[in-house]
Design a protein that fits this description.
The complex is a heterodimer of chains A (232) and B (482). By secondary structure, chain A is an alpha+beta fold. Chain A is 24% helix and 25% strand. Chain A has a 5-stranded mixed sheet with strand order 6-8-3-1-10, with no helix packed on it. In chain A, strands 2-11-9-5 form a 4-stranded mixed sheet, with no helix packed on it. The model of chain A has no long low-confidence stretch (mean pLDDT 87). Classes of the chains: A alpha+beta (232), B mainly beta (482).
Chain lengths: 232, 482
């Protein structure tokens, strides 16, 4: 008897609790403003840094514009929103004349935008590479997103730097002189994804020039370290 | 506890009984039944030869050990390549009838034809293999460049069965401008899958055609990474293994792995002779510089020094003679017929490793300096040479020559070629033993085919085959069956 009473009480309590579960809840939403981040996976030249070398460009080129993709976190907006950014003072070695920070905007109804930075060729780049550290800044519109996606390094110079796609097996040890020779003779500056027949062509073409150099000068061409330029 | 013990003991007893059963001795007293055995009896040859697109018929004789009638049998005729390539495998079922009667459309090659007979009752199959050689009308024969009366050149095929198929190139490619002054055909075999590539070289342009139907694959201008401005094709070779290609153009050598486009040749003041020997299987060869009058050791797209050779018969780097002709010599060597500054002829023999093998004076050979066509034997140290209507045999080691055949007066020998393999994958039973001679009497071109005996002379002192009614023969090369 006692047990039966106990069960019925339990039943009523459970029923009451079940009713509460039917109460409609208001939807929770993230509403702490939008975040902004550099979309590093979208940068082909490198996730964390890229190099601009004026040496591989035409003589007449005096500036270049770098585009970094941006992505927002949070809600869309129906109007254009400006992204604030700047350089990290202590880390940046470039002169003020080396760069111009162009406005960065997230267009209306878009999750993505582009940060444009103009880099300028100056005399000092011929001897020293300049670093520009970009960092996103908090603004009324955006708060800076993940820490590891708020900064980016851009290196600029006017001498040749070893490209990531340099082919050690075909070209041998890297030197500025050798890279310059390849660019002058064949026009290739990037060797990624080239068919072996093209790499062989590059080597053949440069070898002929080196042989010609020996014929004319009676000695091998030397690189910046005073070592002979040779292809294996 | 008592309960558990009682259950365990019962399981124990049961297991013990089961174990006893396994000790039961098998007396092998089964009810065995012999199954129906099928035998495929021999009916004609096991080697079948057909031309592509011809009907392929095979009738089979079957014998069954128990049953009569053939209702219980199913059949399958399948075909696959005898030497399966790395890519492009062929494995097809041609028919499921007892006797094979189909039109065979697969490309000319050597196949294994597999006949499978299965007894539906038992599921047991019996097999028989046939060797199936598929040719086309164009699969084998002498490829000849000929020139018609109006000066136009074309390529024809002289089939071993005795008929000639003229104007192959123009009929396969009606829209193609045939390279002017076509002078050389090369039939080369590749390493990868052993396929065949055909190259035709003209005065300023060359083309590559398909070996099956002679339609255009591409032109010489497509063979370079950088546009080649000075197109003067002279020679095209593969190494013996068929992995590297060598293209001599305007006295410069272009080489690369096959089907790679060519880069740039070594620059410099030299002009390589069209006669050269390549290495067996690498991007290397020995060439002759007609300006510096010396041999050149070419490897990995560079000119290298020859290794120092003690007691060398001559100095590879300082020869000082002019090349007249060149060609193979026995033991994978190469001979050059040369003349020195006193207009005296010599034969220089070299090895592909860059070694000087021998230098032989040729001062007893009649009219050798007037020779217009020459063929070098790879079997004996012999050279066949033609002067007007006369055909001579030069025995280099004996330093003597002999007139071995005279064509009618007013007939000129225009070309001379030995049937010779240029690939490790191709062998002829009559390698170096068949000589084709093209002649022209200002009216009609003819090709005489001679068999060569053990002395290097012609069997029965006469030709064994004659193709008549041709245009003027310019050059000949044997296309191996494919």
């Amino acid at each position: 008897m006692n047990l039966k009473k106990y069960i019925s009480i339990l039943f009523v309590v459970t029923l009451c609790l079940a009713q509460i579960g039917c109460k409609k809840d208001k939807m929770l939403s993230y509403n702490f403003g939008s975040g902004i981040a550099i979309y590093k996976n979208g940068i082909d030249e490198g996730r964390d840094s890229l190099t601009v070398s004026f040496a591989v460009k035409n003589e007449t080129v005096s500036s270049d514009t770098i585009e970094l993709p941006l992505r927002i976190l949070g809600h869309l907006s129906n109007q254009d929103r400006e992204v604030k950014y700047g350089i990290i003072e202590g880390e940046t070695t470039a002169d003020r004349a080396n760069y111009d920070l162009l406005p960065a905007v997230i267009p209306a109804n878009s999750y993505e935008g582009v940060l444009r930075l103009k880099v300028n060729k100056t005399e000092s780049l011929k001897t020293k590479e300049a670093k520009i550290w970009i960092t996103l800044l908090d603004s009324d519109e955006f708060r800076v997103g993940p820490k590891e996606q708020m900064t980016y390094l851009i290196k600029i110079n006017d001498y040749l730097t070893k490209p990531a796609s340099w082919h050690d097996i075909r070209f041998g040890e890297y030197s500025q002189a050798k890279y310059g020779l390849i660019i002058r003779e064949t026009g290739y500056t990037d060797f990624a994804g080239l068919h072996p027949e093209v790499l062989l062509f590059i080597v053949g073409k440069c070898r002929n020039t080196l042989n010609e150099y020996i014929q004319i000068n009676g000695a091998e061409m030397l690189d910046e370290n005073q070592l002979p330029v040779r292809f294996p | 506890m008592k309960f558990i013990i009682s259950v365990c003991s019962k399981i124990g007893v049961l297991l013990f009984v089961l174990m006893q059963i396994s000790c039961y001795k098998d007396k092998g007293n089964y009810d065995l039944q012999e199954i129906n055995k099928i035998t495929i009896l021999k009916n004609g040859s096991d080697t079948l030869k057909v031309n592509q697109f011809d009907s392929l018929k095979v009738e089979t004789l079957l014998e069954q050990s128990l049953l009569t009638g053939e209702d219980n049998l199913t059949y399958k005729w399948s075909v696959f390549l005898s030497n399966p390539p790395i890519t492009g495998l062929i494995d097809e079922v041609l028919s499921t009838e007892k006797n094979l009667n189909v039109q065979f459309g697969l490309r000319p090659d050597t196949y294994t034809l597999l006949y499978t007979v299965t007894d539906k009752n038992t599921g047991v199959s019996t097999f028989k293999k046939y060797l199936l050689q598929v040719s086309s009308r164009l699969s084998e024969g002498w490829l000849m460049i000929s020139q018609s009366n109006d000066g136009k050149r074309d390529v024809g095929l002289l089939h071993p069965d005795g008929y000639a198929i003229p104007s192959l190139l123009s009929s396969a490619n009606p829209d193609l401008m045939i390279p002017s002054n076509l002078h050389t055909v090369r039939v080369l075999t590749t390493f990868f899958g052993g396929s065949q590539d055909i190259f035709l070289l003209g005065e300023n342009e060359s083309v590559r055609v398909k070996y099956t139907d002679f339609t255009l694959v591409n032109k010489g201008s497509d063979w370079f990474v950088e546009k080649n401005l000075n197109s003067k094709p002279q020679e095209f070779k593969y190494d013996m293994v068929g992995s590297n290609a060598f293209y001599l153009n305007n006295g410069k050598i272009y080489s690369n792995q096959i089907d790679f486009r060519f880069g740039v040749p070594v620059a410099g003041n030299y002009r390589l002779s069209r006669y050269f020997i390549t290495s067996q299987s690498s991007d290397a060869g020995i060439f002759y510089d007609e300006i510096g009058k010396r041999f050149i050791n070419y490897a990995s797209k560079k000119f290298n020094n020859f290794s120092v050779q003690a007691n060398a018969p001559f100095d590879m780097s300082n020869v000082g003679m002019d090349v007249m002709f060149g060609g193979v010599a026995p033991m994978s060597q190469y001979s050059f017929l040369m003349k020195d500054s006193q207009q005296k002829a010599h034969v220089l023999r070299i090895h592909s490793a860059g070694l000087a093998v021998g230098k032989y004076p040729v001062d007893n050979a009649e009219k050798i300096l007037q020779a217009t066509s020459v063929a070098f034997s790879g079997l004996y140290f012999h050279i066949y040479y033609a002067v007007d209507n006369e055909l001579y045999l030069l025995d280099v080691e004996k330093n003597s020559s002999k007139l071995i055949y005279t064509f009618p007066q007013g007939t000129d020998i225009t070309t001379l070629t030995l049937k010779q393999t240029v690939s490790s994958w191709v062998s002829f039973p009559d390698n170096n033993r068949t000589l084709a001679v093209g002649t022209y009497d200002q009216q009609e071109g003819k090709v005489y085919v001679f068999s060569i005996d053990n002395l290097g002379e012609f069997t029965n002192d006469n030709y064994s085959k004659l193709y008549e009614g041709l245009d003027k023969p310019i050059s000949l090369v044997y296309k191996n069956r494919k």
